[in-house]
Input
Amino acid sequence: MLSELTATLEKFAAARDGILGVLPTLVLDTTPTGWVPAVELAREPYPVLAEMVQEIATRWNAPLHVAGALFWKTYTYWHTLPMAVGWAVNRRVPVMRPADTWVRSSEAGLTIAATRVTVAVLPGDPVAGEPGTLVNDDLGAVIRAALLDSQLPVIEALGRLTRVGRRNLWGSTAEALTHPLLELGPYGWAAELLAAVGRPVNGLIEQDGAEYRRRTCCLWVTLPEEDPCATCCVQSGRSSSA
Output
């Protein structure tokens, strides 16, 4: 059901020297060891999230709100990647629900996987009706619901813990939907996906030639010894809503 997605993710891993922040098959054993339940990230008083953010703050000598934004840039990229790529490859969108999702530190910053994955497909797809599938003619709405279900609680937790702005964080999610699609096709694919998903991510990315630029800042540019991101809205002279 997800063989084409798995093959594409394996190619992504090969292009990154084997470093990928999501298992290509997406699926873990039912009793994973060395992993943390993703729901713990949003559980008050946020001890798991605080530890992960503090590791980033220490590594980059960054203020807490910057470390929170950088944590989110990594987390949302790997959590969103399978949905974006699945949509682009064959309109089969894997959904990892919060209760089934696990996370651990890795060479990729974080690695994300799930003990169970639901695959949203369009009506008429050959696998429609098979166990583990969800038939829906609006895959953009499926992705939007998955983002609000799985990512919004962690975004709110980061806001309470580090005071980083919600719009900045959703900007990183918008970039996570956009960036991998440029490895598969033209920017128009990403624009179509962002429009299909709608708020809270649509409108946070703009086309810049064949590439794109963010409309919110991921705060990497605030690290004094690091170069700005190629998609930075600050270095381009555009104002961010940070």
About this structure: The first helix runs from residue 3 to 15. The CA atoms of residues 206 and 212 lie 6 Å apart. The radius of gyration is 17 Å.
